[in-house]
Amino acid sequence: MSPDPRPRAARHCHNLLNPLHSAHYFAPELARELAAVGVTHPRAAYFAARSAAMGAVGAGAVTAAFYNFSHELVAEHVPAVWRIASPEAVLAARARAVDATLARLLGPETLTSDAMAEAAELALRATEACTRHARALYAAHADLPVPEAPHMAYWHATTLLREHRGDGHLAALLDAGLDPVEALVSHVATGKGMAPKWLLATRGWNEDDYAAAAGRLRARGLLTDDEEPTLTEEGARLRAAVEERTDALDQAPYEHLGEAGVARLTELATAFVGTALANGAFPADLIGKATA
Q: What is the Cα–Cα distance from 120 to 265, expressed in whole angstroms?
């Protein structure tokens, strides 16, 4: 019996929706707009922008929701950032930054195109089947109003779908027994994760933390003992199981959209992401090999 192709189609669709959501974190527009409301530190800007939908939460809530950041790093900036700018001010700044970033990466014609309006309608339809329970980041963003402009509505929908899948992914990582640093190291070892230099610069862990996590993975038989370690067969099976469990937890929105809708949304998202990548949406060295 052939495996059900729908989970892979849904994952492929998500993997093309997520980059356009995530691009603003690397964009100069976000730093500029948040600096205008007083938030100038890059880490504070990221924590504030992504968690503002939850309100003026403390460091514990952010660490729990973000999973793979050091709590000590989070606590350096949260809740202090809310004394600089309210969550409402941060959300408004983020929206201005996203608007400008999408205009730069896609061009004004794309933002007002029929394709963008269709993509927004399809992505929003998918979100109708998302669920709030045990999904803190999704639930917080789902309470925000849907923007009127099609490109902003599309970005809002990609955010909901990204955080919905992400919240489920954290449950899968916990079930697999991968702590925050082990999750990062094992993802890098797949060849699809952030380069270690980016992780160490942004997640609050140091080289000793990274090496210790790699050692724990080796002790479990999940990581090779090479200079540039990769996953063992057992490690590859575990990471595949994490993704399959994530697929299962994220099945509802794409089933709701239907096979034809998923295919069409994937087609539209592919074009948008291709244009954004060609216009420098992400640093060239963002994805890299594992070192430990």
A: 9
Residue 204 has a CB neighbour count (10 Å cut-off) of 20
Chain center to CA of 287: 14
**Hey, is 91 helix, strand or coil?**
helix
DSSP string computed for 138-173:
HHHHHTSPPPSSHHHHHHHHHHHHHHHHHHHHHHHH
3-state secondary structure of 194: strand
Cα separations in angstroms, 3 against 48, 74, 239, 264 = 41, 41, 18, 22
Q: Give buried/exposed letters for 122-136 (b at 16+ CB in 10 A, else e).
A: bbbbbbeebeeeebb
Using pLDDT thresholds of 50, 70 and 90, give the confidence band for residue 288: low
Strand-pair partners of 231: 223
**Which pLDDT tens digit goes with each residue over 59-118?**
999 999 999 999 999 999 999 999 999 999 999 999 999 999 999 999 999 999 999 999
Q: What is the pTM of this model?
A: 0.94
SS3 content of the chain, % helix, strand, coil (to 5): 70, 0, 30
Phi first, then psi, for residue 287 (nearest 5°) are -95, 135
Q: Which residues lie below 8 Å from residue 87, measured CB to CB, with a gap of 6+?
A: 48, 52, 53, 54, 55, 56
DSSP state letters, 221-280: T-B--SSS--B-HHHHHHHHHHHHHHHHHTHHHHHHH-HHHHHHHHHHHHHHHHHHHHTT
Q: Which amino acid is at 92?
A: A
